[in-house]
Amino acid sequence: MSTTVEFNHVYLTATGICLPGKPVNNDEMTDFVPPVGAASERIRRRVLAQNGIATRHYAIDRQSKTRQSVAGMAAEAVRQCLPTDSAKVDLLATASSGGDLALPGLACQVQAELGWRALSTVSHHGVCAAGMQAAANAARAIDRGENDGAVVVASELPSRLFKRSRFADERLDFNAHFLRWMLSDGAGAWCLRRQPARQGTSLRLKWVHNVSHSGDYPLCMQMGASADGKSAWLDYPTFAEAEAAGALSLRQDIRLLPNLFDIGIHEYVALVKAGAIEPDRVDHFLCHYSSEHFRPMVADCLERSGLIIPTERWFSNLTRRGNTGSASIFIMLHDLLAERTLAPGEQVLLFVPESGRFSVSFALLEVVAPAPASSAGAGSTADKLSAEVNAGVNDKVQPPQDPNALPAESHPALRPLIAELAEVWHDYRARVWHTPLVRRIVDGTLGKSDYLSWMAQWIPQVRQGSGWMRTARAGLSPRFAALAAIIDTHAAEEQDDFQILFEDYRRAGGPVASIDALTRNPGGEALHAWLNARASQLDAVGLLGAMYIIEGTGQRIIPALLPLLKRRFPELRPCFRFLDYHGENDIAHLQRWLDAVEITLQVADSPEALAADIVASARCTANLYLMQMRDILEAA
Predict the structure, then answer these.
(1) Shared domain check, 488 and 354
(2) Are residues 528 and 598 in contact, defined by beta-carbon separation less than 8 angstroms?
(3) What is the mean pLDDT of residues 369-375?
């Protein structure tokens, strides 16, 4: 994959961390980050109950004075990373969401803090994935022989943004208060070289996968824009006016976060399909996440498909270290190496999702034996050393497949089917977010007449939804009786949904008084005709692929658009009942879909052929759904 960079001669030889001050528990944290009124305290309790963090570290004291700077923490982590390593480091790469100064770059500030002589520096600015991006770029330089050794360090100090003095206005929104109880301070450093260390544990960096989907989604986490997102902080006459407008508050739109999880899962599935990740071979999985809460349906989907990494192989220090943003994965790997004994051949998979504007990073490392003493001589080459160190590692007898990775009741055809559908969905999702309708929703330019036109064109499709499902159910052979029962339940639940949507449309000011007078646009007509023609065929079980796209749209895309619609049309909030319902309940519908697919594969004459039919139906439905969405504004 073009977003995956492979390396031949890059080894992680040392790590270091800096966690300022003593661990601060949940009762003590209000001494450092005080609530602002009763509402703020309620948010604190709610957030802490969900994220599972018990202790964290702050670089500010109880009087909100900074005790240690971003550059100072980074320098301390680097010193710990290289206490006895005298070999040359000629590249310093840094990452942070915000340094101590607006400029120069953080790498220059850290170099000055360390008092190092001349070397190459590069500063990465971003959110959680910035550290992985810095590591990938440093690894490129090492692998190409441009640098002999590099230190990559990520450092975060968000607590300075959470002082009570910055939150004097108790009316500040939830999005501005949320991260006060999520983030904390710390720094982590890695040393990268072209050969393993002669002592201790080294890990060969096999590849890094960095991909951004920022062109697909609205802004989720930001600092520098006003609450309505219309003005940037430097556009205000004074900094004081910018702060008064909330432009210097760190905000997170938590309603968009499920989309980040969706992206991460599908990137992971794509890497598995490409052969970059073999779940059964991953011995240690380090996932940077902000909360202990995960969507159970997605986890169940991965488990049934045999793609999940068993929880006993996960390693996390979130509950005791807190969420330190881009530094989290650096600190996590340091703790893994300090607390577990890793053997040559074991694989470590890193996963860092970033919610700023939705980026995803993965990296795969493999433990190697220490470098032979003779290999450090002047005449050795990286290629020769790599061959010596890894000799025999790939011949290691692999352990039997973990039975928890693929439950016995799961059908063998389910695994490749889920992977194929993930690829279809990933492409469909990206294209949906670039349709004219969705772009106008995202940028806040959708007119009320456009919204009403969308509803008017959508209602006929929803009205006919249970119809084609019942047609397909009538054509099922007796061996698909279990599937027929599921369809009966689903069709019964959704047969009256169109009436709720029509009532919402009328309440919002929809001008067409008779539901029979509403018509589909050309794309909607094509989708309707294809679904009904396909449903009329005998044993049209391939339409499970159509359900995957339709229900997925309701569960993954509509909930992300709904907050934007409510913000754009606050007067229409009572008119979004249908959209609210499907955003909350389609996750159960997808669970039902997964059950239906599995029981159908078990009784199919040719499970492989059925799986191919499901994928083909999903792809066709996705294309027609996109045609329908593209036609909405043209028909308005």
Answers:
(1) no
(2) no
(3) 69
The SS3 of residue 351 is: strand
Residue 260 burial (10 A CB sphere; 0-12, 13-18, 19+) = buried
424 in Cβ contact with 624 (< 8 Å): no
**Pick from 594, 599, 391: nearest CA to 480:** 599
Q: What is the DSSP string of 396-413?
A: SPPPPPPGGGS-TTS-TT
* CB contact at 8 A, 284 and 316: no
- Residue located via tokens 């360390």: 114
At 529, which CATH number?
Answer: 1.20.910.10
Whether 157 contacts 185, CB under 8 Å: yes
The CA–CA distances, whole Å, from 408 to 173, 178, 304, 576 equal: 48, 42, 9, 42
Count of Cβ atoms closer than 10 Å to residue 407 Cβ: 11
CA 465, CA 531: separation in Å to the nearest integer? 9
pLDDT of residue 396: 30
Kindly state the helix (H) or strand (E) to which residue 11 belongs, with its residue range.
strand 11-18
Peptide bond into 104 cis (omega under 30): yes
On average, the pLDDT of the chain sits at: 85
In terms of domains, do 546 and 484 share one?
yes
419 pLDDT more than 50: yes
Distance CA 189, CA 485 (A): 56
Q: What is the pLDDT of residue 139?
A: 97
- Are 359 and 314 found together in one domain? yes
Residue 373's pLDDT band (cuts 50, 70, 90):
low
Question: Is residue 224 one of the residues assigned to a domain?
Answer: no
Which one, of 335, 545, 540, 309, lies nearest residue 421 by Cα? Answer: 545
Task: Give the amino acid at 499.
Answer: Q
Pair type for strands 55-56 and 91-96: unpaired
Whole-angstrom Cα distance, residue 106 to residue 121?
9
Residue 123 included in any domain: yes
Secondary structure (DSSP) of 485-551: HHHHHHHHHHTTHHHHHHHHHHHTT-S---GGG----HHHHHHHHHHHHHHTSTT-GGGHHHHHHHH
- Name the E strands within 166-318: 186-193, 202-212, 221-222, 251-252, 282-287, 314-315
Token pair recorded at residue 202: 């080294």
The partner residues of 90 in beta bridges, in order of sequence, read: none
**H or E segment at 138?**
helix 130-143
Give the contacts of 67 (CB within 8 A, at least 6 positions apart). Answer: 20, 21, 59, 60, 61
Q: What is the CATH number of the domain that holds 90?
A: 3.40.47.10
Look at residue 194 in the predicted model and tell me its pLDDT: 93
**Tell me: the pLDDT tens digits for 498-526?**
888 899 999 999 999 999 999 989 999 99
Q: Which range marks the domain in which residue 525 is found?
A: 414-635
> What distance in Å separates the CA atoms of residue 333 and residue 327, rounded to the nearest whole number?
10
Residue 149's SS3 state is: strand
403 assigned to some structural domain: no
pLDDT digits (tens, 9 = 90+) for 532-574: 999 999 999 999 999 999 888 887 888 888 888 998 999 998 9
Top pLDDT among 7 and 587 is at 7
Number of domains in the chain: 2
Residue 362 CA: distances (Å) to CA of 214, 260, 270: 17, 14, 12
Residue 402 resides in a domain: no
> In this structure, are 117 and 205 located in the same domain?
yes
Collapsing DSSP to helix, strand or coil, 462 comes out as helix
Backbone angles phi, psi at 221, to 5 degrees: -130, 130
